Amino acid sequence: MPMRALRTLSRWVLVPALGTLLAGCSGSALVKRDDLSTLKQAETVQSGELRQLSEDLKAHHRGMVRNNNENTRALIETIREQIKPPSCPKRPQPVCSSVSSGETASSSHFQDMLVVGELEKVHFLEPGFTYEARVDTGAETSSLDARNVTYFERNGEDWVRFDVPVPGTKNELKTLERPLSRNARIIQASADDSERRAVVELQFAIGDHVQKAEFTLSNREALSNTVLIGRNILRDIMLVDVGKDFATQLPAKFTSKAGKNQSAKEAPQ
Predict the structure, then answer these.
(1) Angle (nearest 5°) at CA 244 between 226 and 264
(2) Whether residue 19 is found in the same domain as residue 127
(3) Which domain holds residue 229?
(4) Which residues pair with 183 in a beta bridge?
(5) Cα–Cα distance list, 235 to 38, 107, 140 (Å)
(6) Which of 35, 93, 115, 190 is surrounded by the most beta carbons within 10 Å?
């Protein structure tokens, strides 16, 4: 083949092939640029989402910190209230107050009590005798000088018969009978054995005060006083002024009978 023809053929073959090759390269370059643009857009979207997520996380963290701080403060306040030291009460200022009702009642009670001395005149309504009595706060039961004490029964009940001295006489006695209230067991300091003594109820008067009380019947002939007034009579009724004698005065109705109302004072023998 002539050289010219060969060159002509080569031109017609190479030109289309080169065009095709160039077209392929151009398409390949366009595809890569589109992919790059898509990637950039995706990156932009993801960056925005990450920023939003970061803001959300920061806001959530701030909220948790705020709630935790509030809870901590509340817990601290609660602990402070629980361990709060007790406060000392204010010392009250001294004020002058009126007498309370209890003190008034107590004072009124003492004012209503009968003041007696160590020696008093005691009048027994029956038999109508007045004796000199010694007031003894150390004695539990009162006692009366009684002689010839005898027990007997009347209508199925225990009674006692005894003699008492007549005031203003030396040896005259008067017999009385009374129901037996009980028997008192007396232990003498000078003896090992106990003694049983009859106890009876008698009505008497000290001053203008009249009452009934128990008296132990005992022989007081050797003692200074015919009657002993003990705590069973004094309790809640009388106050004893040890610096006085005969602090009370019997009403005239108990002292009007001559010879029967003289006080009896037995001298020791």
Answers:
(1) 20
(2) no
(3) 109-255
(4) 198
(5) 120, 16, 10
(6) 115
Tens digits of residue pLDDT in 196-234: 899 999 999 999 999 999 999 999 999 999 999 999 999
State the average pLDDT for the chain.
81
pTM confidence score: 0.56
Is residue 90 domain-resident?
no
Token pair of 216 as six digits: 């132990």
User: 233: which 2 tokens?
Assistant: 């009579």
Please state, in angstroms and as integers, the Cα–Cα distance from residue 20 to each residue in 25, 26, 28, following that order: 9, 10, 13
Distance in angstroms (rounded) separating the CA atoms of residues 244 and 221: 25
Q: How many CB atoms lie within 10 A of CB 263?
A: 21
CA-wise closest residue to 120 among 209, 47, 202 = 209
Residues 67 and 161 in one domain: no
d(CA 35, CA 45): 15
- Tell me the three state secondary structure of residue 11: helix
The verdict on 222 and 180 lying in the same domain is yes
Do residues 122 and 227 make contact, with C-beta atoms less than 8 angstroms apart? yes
Identify residue 173 by its one-letter amino acid code: L
Do 57 and 21 share a domain, yes or no?
yes
Q: Work out how many domains the chain is built from and give that number.
A: 2
**The CATH number of the domain where 200 resides is what?**
2.40.70.10
51: amino acid identity, one letter? R
Please tell me whether residues 54 and 113 are part of one structural domain. Answer: no
